[in-house]
Amino acid sequence: VRATCKALGSADDGAEFNGLSMMDEAARRFCDSASDEEKAMLPRYEGESWIELYHHLLMLRARLTFDQLVGCCVEYQEGDKATVHRTCGSSAAICGNHIMRAGKHWATFVVPAGALSAGATVGVIRPLP
User: Fold this and answer.
1) pTM
2) Separate counts of helices (H) and strands (E) for the chain
3) With contact defined as beta carbons under 8 Å apart, do 69 and 92 qualify?
4) Cα 41 to chain centroid, rounded
5) What is residue 81's three-state secondary structure?
6) Total Cβ atoms within 10 A of residue 112
7) Is residue 68 classed as helix, strand or coil in its secondary structure?
8) Which of 6, 42, 54, 95 can pair with 68 through a Cys bridge, CB separation 3.0 to 4.6 Å?
9) With contact defined as beta carbons under 8 Å apart, do 62 and 38 qualify?
10) Sequence-ordered list of residues with C-beta below 8 angstroms from that of 17, at least 6 positions apart, any chain
11) What distance in Å separates the CA atoms of residue 24 and residue 13, rounded to the nearest whole number?
12) What is the pLDDT of residues 38-51, one digit of tens each?
């Protein structure tokens, strides 16, 4: 994009929009229109572009899905990537690509009554570098 039009690609090329490229300005306006709750969950970090923040806003608005299933006895429930279940007693893990930046986060686990006596263990961790 930058090679096509200087105003689209880089703030360093004499951009017209408060020192931002046209794309950064469009992303800034979109982020400014976010709700107060969304803004609280998406602090803008030093050096972060508006386009990157816009990407995180889109991820925040999207339905959380689990993109990777690890183990032999775990599968999506009825093909829904937001819901998984175990099909046997083996260990399993699920992974998503969503990065939690700020705010409160929670998960709901439904454990069948008999599974608690068998020693069901559940855990949530942050993304690893």
Assistant:
1) 0.63
2) 5, 4
3) yes
4) 11
5) strand
6) 10
7) strand
8) 95
9) no
10) 7, 24, 25
11) 13
12) 998 888 999 999 99
Beta strands in 1-129 (DSSP E): 68-70, 74-77, 80-86, 93-95
Q: How far is the C-alpha of 102 from the C-alpha of 3, rounded, in Å?
A: 36
Q: Is the predicted pLDDT of residue 28 greater than 80, yes or no?
A: yes
Find the radius of gyration of the CA atoms of the chain.
21
Four-residue CA torsion sign, 67, 114, 123, 100? positive
Give the dihedral sign, CA 35/64/115/113. positive
Backbone angles phi, psi at 46, to 5 degrees: -60, 130
- The helix (H) or strand (E) run that includes residue 119 is none
127 within 8 A of 99, measured Cβ to Cβ: yes
* Percent residues over pLDDT 90 in the chain: 16
What six digits make up the tokens of 107?
A: 């998960």
Residue 2 binned pLDDT confidence (cut-offs 50, 70, 90) = low
Task: Write the pLDDT tens digit of every residue in 84-103.
Answer: 877 776 667 777 777 777 77
Q: DSSP 3-state assignment of 75?
A: strand
- Please state, rounded to an integer, the average pLDDT across all residues of the chain: 77
Tokens representing 80 are: 């829904």
